[in-house]
Amino acid sequence: MKKEFSNLPLRKGVGIVLLNKENKIFVAKRIDNPKNFWQMPQGGVDGDENYYEAALRELKEETSIASVEFIHEIDEKLTYILPDHLIGIIWKGRFKGQTQKWFVMRFIGNESEINIKTKNPEFLDWKWIDLEDLPKIAVNFKLNVYKSLKREVSKILN
Fold it and tell me: What is the separation of C-alpha 17 from the centre of its chain, rounded to a whole number of angstroms?
């Protein structure tokens, strides 16, 4: 990490591992990185919001999904650092990465509820994938986060 970025703080964030009834995981392809990288819904925590409220808000903002039930809160916060070429660009240059609180939830609605063409769209496409494939779809700088989540979700499902 370049010296001028090392003093930047980490953004406080949340992420959602959303499972369907077959225990497949919801992932979406970002508009700003349309290569073959996918991610789970995630985002920042606003003001005095608690982590769970932020997770529900982010999920609804990014996917229109509200029909969920809580399964588990991952104990450990997971962190990623942006690559040098993105620091200073993403989040208006205020953060060098993100420390996230992750929640595992079950989608209990109908797939017609899923709409990524939101007010401020972030995604081009979405799909359900097997837990095993989670590390294969992640952008490099989030790979360790996704590997950790695969381990944690495996424990919950077994």
Answer: 7
The reported pLDDT for the residue numbered 81 is 94
Buried b (16+ CB within 10 A) or exposed e, 20-42: eeeebbbbbbbeeeeeeebbbbb
* Run of H or E residues at 15: strand 10-19
Q: How does pLDDT run across 43-102, given as a tens digit for each residue? A: 999 999 999 999 999 999 999 999 999 999 999 999 999 988 888 778 888 899 999 999
**Amino acid (1-letter code) at residue 153:** V
The residue with tokens 């982010």 is 58
* Domain chopping of the chain, boundaries: 3-157
Can you state the percent helix, strand and coil of the chain, rounding each to 5?
30, 30, 40
Q: Contact at 8 Å (CB) between 13 and 51?
A: no
Q: 3-state DSSP call for residue 20?
A: coil
Q: Return the CATH fold of 3-157.
A: Nucleoside Triphosphate Pyrophosphohydrolase (3.90.79)
